[in-house]
Amino acid sequence: MACCIFMRLSLVAKRRLLVLILAIGAVLAVVLAVTRFDPIATTGGAPVSLLNSPDLATVGADKSAPFYNPKPVAEYTLPGTVRRVEDVAGAPPGIKVQRMVYVSQTAAGEAKEVSALFAVKDGAPPPPNGRPLITVAHGTSGVAPGCGISKEPFRLGSNGYFWWYFYTEPLVRAGYAVVMSDYGNLGTPGVSDYIVKNGAGADVLNAARAALKLDVRDIDANKVAIVGHSQGGYNALAAAQMAPSYAPELPIKGTVSQAPGLFPPAPLMKVFLQMGPGAGPDGTADFAAHLADAVVSWSANYPNEIKPSDVLTEKGVQALKTAETNCIVETRAPFDGPYQDFVKPDITANIAGIVSKNMPVYDKFAAPVLMQQGLKDTVVVPGVNIAAYRTFCAEGSTVKLEEYPNDVHSSVLLAGWPSTLEWLDGRFSGKPAPSTCQ
């Protein structure tokens, strides 16, 4: 009977069903045998103390900047159009930094304004063909207006400082032009696209389009790559899969995804949530806060499919109000306690459909991918990302997986950085991309 049903499915439906089966099987294998898993690639850990410094903790949302006040966008305005631009004071010597507002699209395809940071070397002439462009996808800073990274990137404690210090400036010093989107609603108010594939991917790709318009002289329009961590690792994968159809003019040479925030397909959603660091009797606020950000975003993008009370208990719904108006640091505090106090015991049926259509796992990547994952990560589940990697391989993508046995969610940034730079240089110089798929 199952065989007959399978034969009657369309080619696309068959493909998606096979992908889900592969992913589920891979997750089960990792969940059941995680202590026996033989890492594909290992390397030493990075110091965690620097990344846990209080100086790098982000502050509350700042809604006062008039530059970010939204202005209407006509539906016919081309995505990637630059609407406003200004210099950012206090940039390090030898670097030109600007913030801009550009046109992107929501997951539903509606035009919107999004803000971003753009940086490039200043003074020294660019190479003959210009500098390669990296469109960077930053990790979770929140889902509320004012939680973006472009407002005060050079001030210790700001939302943008961490991403400037560990991502943007090192890439600029390495010779790249860099653009980093704030994402929807984090700078210019609008609709959040946290773990919403089409909205998040559009923001990353349209930031690249805008950067190419902003600085034609300095950028090699034939060399573009995507780099992201955590939420940004997810956004990077989403953008990479969207690029051939959504932005075919962008010559994406490769994508780096560090510790991406991926959810597994149903029916393993409950297992995934139970594996989260907040699921035990002691509980932690971090995992619940990230789930809260997703609930805010999903309920805004799919109001007819989900509401907060479908996922959260009454106490959780009350705690969620903080996420709607504050950034990730403040969001954690109301969720301090046992995970079960805030999240309903079985939410699989409520969010499985939304998760399924927003996971970038169904299509082959047109360009190579580098995935990096710390095996001591407690913000995302390493086994889920390893399962996604195996699915990408099964689909025929060129993917290199690097596992870092001693690294947590943040420290994989430092541990993987030398490899990231080497891998990017290889893509821009035209070398064959390495793969660990077996």
Write the layout of secondary structure elements.
Layout: H1 2-8, H2 11-33, E1 82-87, E2 95-105, E3 111-121, E4 131-137, H3 161-173, E5 177-181, H4 197-214, E6 219-229, H5 231-246, E7 252-258, H6 269-275, H7 285-301, H8 308-311, H9 314-325, H10 328-332, H11 348-358, E8 369-374, H12 382-394, E9 399-404, H13 412-428
Kindly describe this structure.
With 438 residues, the chain is an alpha/beta fold. The chain has 13 helices and 9 strands. The chain has 2 domains: 276 residues, 3-Layer(aba) Sandwich (Rossmann fold); 84 residues. α4 crosses α5.
Q: Descriptors for this entry?
A:
Rossmann fold; 37% helix; 9 strands; nine-stranded mixed beta sheet; 438 residues; alpha/beta; disordered N terminus; 2 domains
How many alpha or pi helices?
Answer: 13
Instruction: Return Rg in Å.
Output: 21 Å
The residue-averaged pLDDT reads: 82
Q: Could you give the order of the helices and strands?
A: HHEEEEHEHEHEHHHHHHEHEH
**Main β-sheet description:** 9 strands, mixed
Summarize the structure.
This protein is α/β, with parallel strands linked by helices and 438 residues long. The protein contains 13 helices and 9 strands.
